[in-house]
Amino acid sequence: MEYQIEREEKEVLGDFKPELIPDACGGGIDDYEEALHVLMKFVGSMSSALEQVSGRGANAIVYQAGKRMGHEAGKMVEKTDDLEKAMQELSEILGVEFFFDMWKPTNQTEYTIEKGNETVVKLIFRDCVVRQTLRRTGLPQKGPLCYLLYGYTVGAVEEVMGIKGKLDIDHVGPNACLKTLTIKWGGK
Amino acid sequence: MVKIEIDEDACVGCGSCVDDCPNDVYEMDEEKNKTKVVKEDDCMACLSCHEICPAEAMEHKNIHVAKRLYIDRKVSGILKKII
Ligand code: SF4
Ligand code: SF4
Fold first, then answer.
1. Residue B56, Cα to own-chain centre: how many angstroms?
2. What per-residue confidence (pLDDT) applies to A16?
3. Is the per-residue pLDDT at A10 higher than 90?
4. ipTM of the complex
5. Among A31, A135, B17, B67, which one is least packed by beta carbons within 10 Å?
6. pTM, whole model, 2 decimals?
């Protein structure tokens, strides 16, 4: 007798023809949830293994990968040297899964602070898939995966504004993370 | 606008929230030995104070509640039945 793996779920059987433009994904919300969680665990484990093997060098490698992605994504939107417009475009690039706002303490009048040839702006990331993934895997909110997002953000801003940028982490929390974006005027 | 409420009966006066908040939203009320909210408008709703408070004594109202896609609903469902 042929051996059969036993499963609780029923296998989906149906007909299938080659399709040019697929119009259905199949599966329900529970399947998406399960797939997301599997991906989170995979990516989280990969990130912590990378850190174990390469130490802090892992952050630098991943940062460069993120930056390259950001530059590619930034090519899709209009170039501007207006910071507010650039932030609007960045929010379109990052999408709703990386919902962020500009932030300032109440005693500061403007969102931006000028320091010589640099402009500094604080960004508060409210929704973040990286945070979700790290929490799913029980990892602290730091390390290579965070650097992927830093790189992505910096790359996109650099591409949109034609400047050199840097992102530093100020504070992380379970509901939001505060970052400082520094823009260096005067080209790359 | 963020609104923060402290349950004074629950607060044990450990001061962890005062130390943890990067925006100095809290201060210790030395007389009562409880925390008090002094700069509510500077709260950015990171909720790290929620994670550190041993008494779960604070509530933040009218904030952006980040998605919690990391929650495994099946596991939470089982835990809810037990706890
Ligand atoms: S949520 Fe963050 S900013 Fe607001 S009081 Fe708590 S630690 Fe401070
Ligand atoms: S961390 Fe919680 S228990 Fe400690 S002082 Fe703050 S509110 Fe009170």
1. 6
2. 87
3. no
4. 0.93
5. A31
6. 0.90
Contacts of B56 (CB under 8 A, 6+ apart): B10, B50
The DSSP call for residue A107 is T
In angstroms, what separates the C-alpha of A106 from chain B's closest C-alpha? 6
For each of the domains in chain A, give its residue range(s) and CATH number, in order of start. Answer: 29-184 (3.30.1380.20)
Question: The domain that contains B16 carries what CATH number?
Answer: 3.30.70.20
CA neighbor of B26 nearest in space, from B42, B9, B10: B42
In this predicted structure, the answer to whether residue A57 has a pLDDT above a threshold of 60 is: yes
* Best CA proximity match to A185, nearest among A123, A114, A89: A114
Evaluate: CB of B58 within 6 angstroms of ligand 2: yes
If contacts are CB pairs under 8 Å, which of residues 69-128 in chain A contact chain B?
99, 103, 105-106, 124, 126-128
Residue A1 confidence (pLDDT): 64
For residue B59, report the distance from its CA to the centre of ligand 1, in Å: 11
Per-residue confidence (pLDDT) for residue A129, from 0 to 100: 94
Buried b (16+ CB within 10 A) or exposed e, A79-112: eeeebeebbebbbebbeeebbbebbbeeeeeebe
Residue A23: pLDDT band (50, 70, 90) is confident
Give the closest residue to B22 by CA, choosing from A99, A108, A173.
Answer: A173
Rounded to whole angstroms, the Cα distance separating B1 from B3 reads 6
Which range of residues forms the domain containing residue B42? 3-82
Provide, rounded to the nearest whole percent, the portion of chain A with pLDDT above 70: 98
**Least confidently predicted of A1-10, B22-31, B34-43:** A1-10
Nearest chain B residue (CA) to A139? B70
Contact B44 A178 (CB under 8 A): yes
What is the chain A residue with the closest CA to B50? A174
